[in-house]
Structure formats: structure tokens, C-alpha cells
Amino acid sequence: MTLQDLYLLAPEISLAGLAGLVVLLDLVTRRKGLVAALALVGLLAPAAFAVSLWGDVRAGGAMAGILDTLVVDEFALFFKFLVLAAVAVVVMGSTDYVSRFQRYQGEFYALVLFSASGMMLLAAATELVSLYVSLELSALPTVALAAFLRDERSTEAGVKLLVLSALSSALLLYGMVLVYAFTGATQLEEIGHIAQALASGDLAFGSYAMLAGGVLIAAGFGFKISMFPFQMWAPDVYEGAPTPVTAFLSVASKAAGFAVLLRVFTTVFAGASVDWGILFAVLSAVSMTLGNLLAMGQNNIKRLLAYSTVAHAGYILVGLAAVAAGGGLGLGGVLFYLGAYAATNLAAFFAIIAITNRTGSDDIDSFAGMGKKAPVIGAVLAFSFISLIGIPPTAGFMGKLYLFNAAVQADLVWLALVGVVNSVISAYYYLRVVKSLYVSSSETRGGIISSLPLRLALGVSGLGILFLGIFPGSLLRMADTVARALLNLG
Q: In angstroms, rounded to a whole number, what is the distance separating the alpha carbons of residues 160 and 163?
């Protein structure tokens, strides 16, 4: 490994090093606030390395390292920034919640950081083995995090996540083996060239193997993004896991999953004869419809958001279907929507943390009247749900507008219509929570007391929803730049 390789891996190495420092500090101090402070301030190091790499890539183009198993380009760096931002807000928003496991704060923050380092590597990996290793590095810490409360529901969440994660890894690995068996290559770019040759018809049997491999790879990563039919883990894991962990899974894990899906399918399978656009379009329609219909009957707020994230995986797949169908706007739409969804979901979960810390229950009925008792927290939660519906002037509205426009441009008008109809359906269960906040009455007395870091996390994510809804141009331009860079490489 050369110094250049170390420089390319600097964000991930510094993040893993920060996790180690957090554990060491937790061993030597009883002031647990210092542990969270170190975890938050220490993120400046990987962020600074990522900014430095962004400047180098913009000046000289993409850089490959570690025997061409890793590439640092605009696409990889976009997701590094997104994951780091999500981790920073999760650390701030979890300071009140972690009092439930005061003795294990260091381990909690360290596991979040280790998982984030794997997610950052996923976006940059360009070789099958490195992809798989990065996936496991990101997935295994989340299993421990899901079981962190060590009660019945949390333990069940950890076991289910472990078992189903192992199943998805087996599907992914089998798909990779099929691809390798018929191409003799593990580099994504090399496999892409061979896939184009297979598409010419010279090796028809090989093309079917590539098809099977591609489907299994999509299935393996489909688990990570909670798309149909691999969403079965989400409700129980979201309900049983600590709420900050649920927020982290819903945002950072989904972003990493879509990052690797986009890189693999734009690099490897874009030139194949199979119409991947139809596959992703069908998965999109079923995911958003199933997620919204099942969310309508939920009384637990975390289970409701679990099915909501299945529906939003369907919305994001609209962009992936547009990319596969040749739509130029689809990839930029996916990138923008991931940023908008991150701000929206984090705001929702942090408001939920503040309210449930007061009520002691995740039932929607326990939210009754909280919009009046805690006006700011109630307003942030209501505004985030309005964004999830896709009502202006929110980030969610701009994201859906961009994605559905991409579908229309790619001649997938029917898919855009399905998305619009599902957005209307989702209003039922989102506005049900808003109704509980402001219309229903509660016997609970007193307001909600929250710490400064939690209020800061709420403010940052809430303002992010509003800013991206009114001024989406900066993120849209960045998303388009990243999309063009990936498509040119792919």
C-alpha cells in the first residue's frame, strides 16, 4: 500500500481511528458528555480529508488506488459527505437517548462510526470482493446497535437483522460468483466491457448467467435499501432498535445501498441487452404501494416510519428505473432525493426522540396534544411529515418533482403516475400523526425538556428541509455534476 492509497482512504481511516479514540476516552473518563463531544468534533478530520480529495478530483479527475479496487471520484465523495453529515446529526440527536445505556456510550458511538466507515467505502469500491467486505463492515456494527437496549424487543431486532442480513449476503455473494464465473473478472469496469460483449449474442448462455448474477446482486443490495420483497426486516428492527439507530439505518444505510446499486448497474450492466428499467420500475411501483398501504394500519410511530421507508425506497427506485431506461435526469434525481430524504427523516426521528423521552411510549396516541405542549418540536415533526408527503415548500416536494420528471423524460409516465397516486395515499397516515399532535387532547401535563445538542440537531435538519425546498439549486447542481461524472465513467 502506497502513501497515495493511504491518502485516498484517509476519510475512512480517520473515521475508524476516531472510533478507537472514543472507546479509549470512555475507559478513562466518567464525564460521558466528553465522549459524545469527541465523536462529534472528531468528524472534522474525515470531513477535511474528504474536502481535500474533492478539490483534487475536481482539478485532476478521478483517482484509483489499492490495486484499482477503490476509486475516489465525485460520486464516492458525494456519499462520503452525506454519510458524515448524517453521522454528525445522529450523534447530536442521540445525546438525550443514550442515558438509557449510560455505561456503554463509547461502544455505541464507536459502532456508529465503524459502520459509517464501511458505508463510505461502499460508495468508492469498484471490485466485487472489496464491495462485499465493505458491505459486511457496514452491516455487522448495525446488528450490535439494533440489540443495544438488551430488552426483549431490542434483542429480537438484533437477531432478525443478523439472520436476514446473512441471507442477503449469501444472495449477493452467489450473484457475484455467477458474474465472476462467466467473466473471469472482479473489477466492475472490466466486467462491464465483458457484459457488452455478451450482449452482442456471441455468448448467449453467458448472458443468462449475467442476468441471474445481476438479479441476485440486486436482491442482496435490495435488503439494504428495504425495497420489496426484502423489506420484511424493517418493521421489527425499526421498532426494537434504539431510536437513534433507527434514524441512522433509515438514512445512512439506505444512502450507501443506493450508492453501490448505482455504481454497479451504471458500470456493469448498462450495456447489457436486458431491460433493467422494467425490472426497477416494477420493483419501484410495488415497493411504494406496499409500503404505503401497510403503513396505514400502524399504531406504533417507528413501525409506521419503517413502512414509510419501504415506500420511499420505491420513490427512489423511480430514478434508478429512469437511469436504466436511458433517462438523463434520473441519476441526479436520486442523488438529490437522498439528500432531501436524509434531512427529512432525521428531523422526524429527532422530534420523535424528544416526544417519546417525555411520554415513554412509541404509540401514536401518546403524541396527542404534543404540538401544543412543545410548539417547536411539534412543528418540526409536522413539517417533516409534510415533506415526506411531498407538499411544497419542502425538500420532499422538490425531490419527488425531480424524480417524477425524470420518469416522464424516460417514457415511464405510468410509473410517475403511480408515484403521484402513492404520495396522495401516504397523506392519510402522515396527517394522522399531525392530527394527533394538534387536534387530539392529552392528559399529560408539562412541556418537553430536551438538551441543547438535540435541539441543535432538530434545528439543523428542520432548516435543511426548508432550505432544500426553497433553494434546491445548490444541491441540484452538485447532484448533476456527480451524475455526469459517474455516467461518463460508466
A: 5
